[in-house]
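Deviations from the work plan: none for this task. Representative record:
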Amino acid sequence: MSNVSEPFMNQPTERYASDSWQLHKTITPKLIAILLLCTVVIGWSAHNTEMDRAALENIQAVGALMGIGDSKVVSGATGFVRKAFPFVIASKTETERLVTFDPKQLPLFTHLKTIKEREYDALTDSYSEVEVEYLVHPFGYLIKVLVKMWETLEMAFWGTLFSIMISLPLGILSARNYSPNKVVYSGARGLLGFHRSMPELIIALFFVLMYGFGPIAGIFALSVHTSGVLGKFFADEIENAPTGPQDALRTSGAGKLKVLRYAVLPQVLPQYVAYTQYIFERNIRTATVLGLVGAGGIGMELKGRWDLFDYDHVATILLIIFITVMLLELVSQKLRARTM
Amino acid sequence: MLELHRVSRIYKDGTRAIDNVSLKIAKGEFCVLLGPSGAGKSTLMGMINGLVLPTDGSVVLWGEELNKTNIKKFQRRVSMIHQQLHLVPRLSVLHNVLTGILPETPLWRTLFNIFPETNQRRACRLLEDVELEEKHIHRRAMALSGGQQQRVAIARAFMSHPSIVLADEPVASLDPNISRNVLSLLKRTATQREATVLCSLHQIEFALEFADRIIGLRQGQLVFDGPPKALNEKALKELYGSEKIPKIQEEKTIIADADFVPALQAA
């Protein structure tokens, strides 16, 4: 056991000049000042973004769940959930509204259903019971949503296709070693940057103004934004491709385009395909949202039902989106495992 | 057909990569360039290919002096085989050979990858000449062994009907047995097509075995020019300096690196 009163047992006892050297201090007045400043800024920002209210509401919500008091958050959620279940799978249409309706020849799978409904008469301020006949398709709404989902997938497909068509030439022009000159290079790079910097939802707003509601606006919005991403990636890949084979072909007298075609493209293609696959997946996810601004796809149906408080329909849509994205993930994982 | 008139290449820092070299090479000759690392072998080849322009003197091909404007024209008649092969790894063997004829192929054909049947047939014959079998031709170049890849590179070099083939250390990364095989294929292919070959090597025994004529470079200067028979101890000493003479390799010795010169052998 060492002697406690002599901590520097093995060291000489004479004075060291280094005893007066400045040591490292972790906590300094400067640090405290910086920390204080950060706290103030964060506090101010939290107030700006209502983080304080969020904390309060969350505490109330936990309380409400345990049976103490009320909470807006919980009642909002339960309001949705109560209306959302069961999902709507069937569709029903009043037979009176159908232009060509023949009760003897019902469409496939459908049946008729009569429902008693209360009708309000404003003149007499009284309710009366009316029997309304509906044509019910047992999974009509599901089919409608699936059709919309398919349309969304198609939007993503066309968006990706146009994106490839824009990004290939622009990508080549913005690769430093294959661009014809500096002006074209900067122009192409700038254009790609511009495409990249505009979020799909905002471009979609403009395209809806130009082409009206529907998938055209969505497809164009997707292709503009993602071509910026894909083009930059392609240009960088071309610039980083191994130079040996390119030099070999160039010294044999082959022109720029031929060298690009035979020494660069084969080397770059696998990564480009992988990236395109990622962009396609991303486009599907984005395409589901684009409908919110009227640019076609399942989002339009979602927005319409949401605004009518048809949460049971909304639930069906959300479920279909969820299943589609999951399936997509599964398929692309399988694909990736095969191509790698 | 190939003449160098007192060519020099002097770099800005004063290094004389090639110093006052004059050469005349006749059609169909198989010349081997020998010399220690940094002797200027690659620079000399680059001059014939138009990659390096001489700072002094002139390179004359078929009676016409090489300059900046006519490089492209000559590059089609001069092909090159590189030390690092420079095949396109993901392209098939057949298409790697076909890239040798890109300058003559119309652009639309290259873009859609449709090569005329006659050219494809020619590529196949060349591949047969370098002893590659049919089962390999649709595989990717990167799937082949080093020796096979170098044979593909030879086939590619001959695809464009070259009059001159420059081979820069073509067997540097191969083991001796495969090297011998590759060099004999190179020589046979060249002889069949009456092409002149200028090939740099670092293995003296291969130079003695294959060369019609040996050209020795040391510090950019021509120090030996003659048939293999004339390359005696004295000439070797002059070529590699008094101390560094690479040992003539025995069978099965493997030299992995081009720049590696085996330990000194006292003369």
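Confidence is low (pLDDT under 50) at residues 249-267 of chain B.
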